Structure formats: structure tokens, C-alpha cells
Amino acid sequence: MNETLLKRMAMQSVAFMLLVITMSYALTRYQSIKIEASNKKGIGVEESYTPVLISSFSDHAADTKEALKSSIRPGFDGIMEAVDENIIAQLSSRYIIIKKPAGDSLKLKMEDLYITKSIRITLSGLSGDQISSAGIARVNNKELFTGDPVFTEVTADSMMETEGAVETEITKDYGSDIVHSVTIHTAYDASHNDYTAEILLEFDNVYVHILQEDDNYYYIDLRNPRDVYDRILVIDAGHGGKDAGALSKDEKYYEKNMNLDIVLQLKELLDQENIKVYYTRLSDETIFLRPRAALANAVNCDFFVSIHCNANMATVPNGSEVLYYDREFEGVKSKNLAQICLDELAKTIPMKNKGLVEKKDNDIFILKKATIPAIIIEVAYMTNQNDMEFLSSSDNRKAAAKGIYNGIMTAYKTLKAED
User: What value does the mean pLDDT take over residues 333-346?
Assistant: First the structure.
């Protein structure tokens, strides 16, 4: 756990003490949880229920037990009995509690899948096929949820997913439940004579996941990225997977690969900085436009930088340019970010400086949807012979990455300077 996080947790622990006092009264009134082995794999369908407000337990202690039994999901009626109050005191207002299953050598691995607002939890060393959604509790501002998330369909909306494509989206309302999907797969491991469960949790937002545990439970604290990190950056490698982007005239090079390599070179430089960086992709995979912009908005990043290469029906156009919308966010103008990055890029690569390109209306989806400073850097033209010869060199792509890196660091110094 890094020093910044420890400091923030210490500062916030006092604020959570009132919650702990309220909860501690209720903790002694629960029965212990018992998760039974299930014959069904994955998640089952359970009927709707009314969430329990933890804060109300101490107000009606005599009636709480029976009310809890009727409102909480099966298999979880004792989740709070044996929790560690010292751990609870360190948690924020949103967290996950998972009852530890039986097993002699339990191991937990957690993977952050932030582009889909999810985490993948792998639990190995289980003595049986015994994990279900009923054994996963979610607390959101004192409200407790277990089992499969319940939603209502609100409306249908048409959203542009890729340039030139439209997809119909069904809006779902999950109320106060911070988890929108629970998927569980359990498999027998013959080599170890035990079971491994993979739990995929999809959240309502992007969180920083902080894991703690005791003898009985795993606790996953869910923090807003801004509560943990001082500087947050989102880097987007344009296109990817089925979306190849622009194509060189000889059809040997795809834009998606050029963009990705520049981002990977940029990552090596940013890894040395005290900046939390979210990448929309670090491999050749298909990522639609909406999740890219949604990620940048969800983490409330300082800058959203999307890296592309240009193309034209003609072979004459060449050079570098930066696209932006004329907007301002918390005192930072996207135009100023664009100018700084273009200036620094021009210092490291011998491309024609074509200047800034202001976009309007619905020209560029990710710029239109961004609620933070956002730019698209067009490094060079895939359709120009000289530009393409430059892009085909790994050293030249590294130089482009260096220029973008310099632009980002200069932007932090000039646009986000600390008081």
C-alpha cells in the first residue's frame, strides 16, 4: 500500500467512526453465515428483495432479527456477526465483504478491469464448489445488498459506438446497489484436488480496490480514484482489434498497431512518474468509443490523451496535428493542452506542424462526450509516403512517444501547477 493511500486512509478513518459505532451495535445481533455447497454453477435467479439499512438496526433492536431474515438474501443472514471492527473502521462508505469458503490453502488474486468497471477475483484452494452470489455482500452508505443485483429497465437510447455505427442501449437502474453484475465460475483442479472460483463483479463506477482480510472474511474497500491519487491520466491507443483504423497505401501497416506501439513506449516513460495512468488498451483488442470516454469521465482524470495516426484519400497531406473541442474544465482549457502537446511533439519528430484543429458538434465522439480536458493527437499520415516511412521505424515511434510524454509533463507543470 503506497504512502499516499495510507495518509488518506488515516485522515478519513475518523469520519467513519460514527458508522462503526452504529454498526457495532448491530454486529452482535447477527447469526453466523453458512454458505452451503451448491449444485448449480454460475449465478442463479433469485426474487427481488428490499435492501436493509444498517443504520436502522440499532433503532429497532428487538425487531431487527426477524425483519432481516425476511428481507436479506438466502445464505447471508449472518454476514456481519464476525467482521473485524478495526478493519471496518478503515473502510470507506462503499465496500464488499466476501465470506471465506472452506479450504486449507485459500489464495485470492484480484485483477482490475477498469475499462468495463469490473474486477476479476480468483479464489483458489477451495475444498468444494461452494461460492454463490448470496455470499457476496455490498455496502453502500449503510445500505446492504447480497445475491444477484436487481434492476429495472428505464429507457432505450441510441449511442454511437464506433465511427459510422449506431447501437441501441437499454438503460438499467440498479438503485443504490454498487454492483451491477455478479458472474461466478467454479472449476475442479485435479492437480491440487481442490476448486478454483472466478468471480467477476461489475460496478456502477470505476473504483480503486483495496483488499484486506481476517480469518473469516475478505474486505474490498472501494475508493474513488480522486480520493487516492493526486494526479490521474487516461491514455487511449486509438482503434484496436476489429477496428484497424487507417491503412498504409501498400496495405502493410495498420493504424491500430502504430497507435499501440506509441502508447506502449509512452507507458515506459510514464511508469517512472508519480501519476496514476489508466490505459484504454495495452493489447490488440476491440474497445468501443463509449467506454473510452466513459473511463476518462469516471476517474475524473486531469487529461485524456488519445493517440492516432491520420489518413486522407489523397497522398499529399502530411504532418502532425492535434484535435480538440473549445471547452474548459476546472480552469484547464482543452485548447491549451492541445497546443502544449503539439509544441512538444514538434520538438522530437521531424514532421510538418499542421497546427490545431478545433472540432465542433458531433464531429468526434470521444471529444464530444468527454467532461474533462481531452485531445486527439494525430502523429502523422499513414497515407503519405514520407510520413509512413517515419512511422514504420520503432525508434521514430519512440521519439513520438517522448514528445507526447514531454507535452503531458509540461501540461502538468503549467496547467495543473499546485498552489
Answer: 98
